[in-house]
Amino acid sequence: MSATITQGFLDHKIFSIVSETAQEQGVRAFVIGGYVRDCFLGRPSKDIDIVVEGSGIALAEAVAAKVKTNVSVFKTYGTAMLRYRGIEVEFVGARKESYNRDSRNPIVENGTLEDDQLRRDFTINAMAFSLQKEDFGALVDPFGGIKDLAAGIIRTPLDPDTTYSDDPLRMIRAIRFATKLSTPSQKFTIVQESLDSITRNRKRMVILTKERIIEELNKILVTPKPSMGFRLLDETGLLEYIMPQLLKLKGVESVDGRGHKENFSHTLEVLDNVAEAEMAAIAEGTLKDYVFEDGVEVAKVRTEPNLWLRWAALLHDIAKPDTKRYDPAIGWTFHGHEFRGAKMIPKLFQSLKMPLNEKMKYVQKLVGLHLRPIALVTDEVTDSAVRRLLFDAGNDIEDLMLLCNADITSKNPKKVARLRANFDLVRQKMTEVQKKDDYRNWKNPICGEYVMEVFNISPSNVIGQLKDAVKNAILDGQIENSFEAADAYMRACAAELGLFPVDKK
């Protein structure tokens, strides 16, 4: 199927340059994949894939020479990439692929545009725009991708069993696209034949690396409604191969007619709440990220979703199955699940081949603290409690508050409204305490070197004892947050331990 496109999708200068250069080299070039799809969906895209019936690398190098920009060549994959006027353009030679059973890495041969479209995962990603002078802008759509876009359908060009068995990553990609492309006005669905095929081929997941799986999972997490993706992963049986820990959250037990919240559904509801609240805050410019530039901490307005906040939402109740018990007096309890969950995060991240750096620590912090603000809502809010929350959360306090607010879910709308209104009291108290001192970035006025100097001692446990005593006294409001008050308190505590300043004279 072909049709000439006149909507201005190829107005950017790079397209005419590629067209001209391809003609000079005697090769045919096409825009293919995501850029074409997003044009029809009205989604902005700055990533362009060019497929060439010939050498993609040679065409990329020639284009780069014309526009006077650098080109990155990836010979292993037969691709090349350049940037021009805010657009990232990747070139690859048209190819046909075949697979063996034990690997998702294809056997690659040179091919035509038709061959290249046959290897594409979904009909909506197989459409191409011609860059030939004689039919510039013509849509090449052999599988009816344009109709599937209009209908909101995710469908494979060929037999889905073959498509998914050859490369099982496409199963997660199908779910990712259904989640990513869905909007309030148009929901994208995976056709039933394809859904059934994913279920049949789910065991093929074992040949995928954790890194590739997580890459797709991350893309699902930053969508406006990520619960859709996780429900599809569960429905098709893929979640068992990705994160079986989440499946333990499913189900409700009942004793004497008393049940508990269905924690899997609750988790997905919280995840969606976080996504909605974060995007609203980004639109309002009220969320900040803190980065170091030239050794100085700088606050920058957040413009993109925080992937790791989404992970914290997904994992905030991960330890509930391990801490669940029934108490006849109070019913079901998950006491301590936040602490157990925080301890689980490093091992979980390691098993999923995810970073074990500050990103993991951020998720661990939010999981461990996610009940603290809620506790402040239900108890009398004291300066001491707020100080400790601000100190423990640091610059992540706003993300923590967002997560905790999202965690208030109930079938009783009056209860939800009451608890969320009470958060205003906590925020007001936080503001008052912050005005007195910046406890989010609080540092102990007393350092270990100073303790050793005053008492002329070597490194030992007593130094930590004295520093902790000073920290707790300040956070509890027993002494002022000043060096003078901290120094006097340190000396008093040391005297109780039989330790006295040494006169250096």
What key phrases describe this protein's structure?
single chain, 505 residues, alpha+beta, Beta Polymerase, domain 2, Hydrophobic Seed Protein, 4 domains, eight-stranded mixed sheet, two-stranded antiparallel ribbon, 24 helices, 50% helix, 14% strand
In short:
With 505 residues, this protein is of the alpha+beta class.
How would you portray this structure in words?
The chain has 505 residues and is α+β, with helices and mostly antiparallel strands. It folds into four domains: 2-150, 2-Layer Sandwich (Beta Polymerase, domain 2); 153-242, Hydrophobic Seed Protein; 261-441, no CATH class; 448-496, no CATH class. Helices cover 50% and strands 14% of the residues.
List the SSEs and their pairings:
Blueprint: E1 2-4, H1 13-25, E2 28-32, H2 34-41, E3 47-53, H3 56-67, E4 71-74, E5 79-84, E6 87-93, E7 95-98, E8 107-110, H4 113-118, E9 128-130, E10 138-140, H5 145-151, E11 153-154, H6 160-166, H7 169-181, E12 189-190, H8 192-200, H9 210-221, H10 227-235, H11 239-242, H12 244-247, E13 254-255, E14 258-259, H13 263-284, E15 288-293, E16 296-301, H14 307-315, H15 320-323, E17 325-327, E18 331-333, H16 337-351, H17 358-369, H18 372-378, H19 383-393, H20 397-406, H21 413-436, H22 448-455, H23 461-475, H24 483-496
Parallel strand pairs: 3-6, 11-12
Antiparallel strand pairs: 1-10, 2-3, 2-9, 4-5, 5-6, 7-8, 9-10, 13-14, 15-16, 17-18
Helix pairs in contact: 1-3, 7-9, 7-10, 13-14, 13-20, 14-17, 16-17, 18-21, 19-21, 23-24
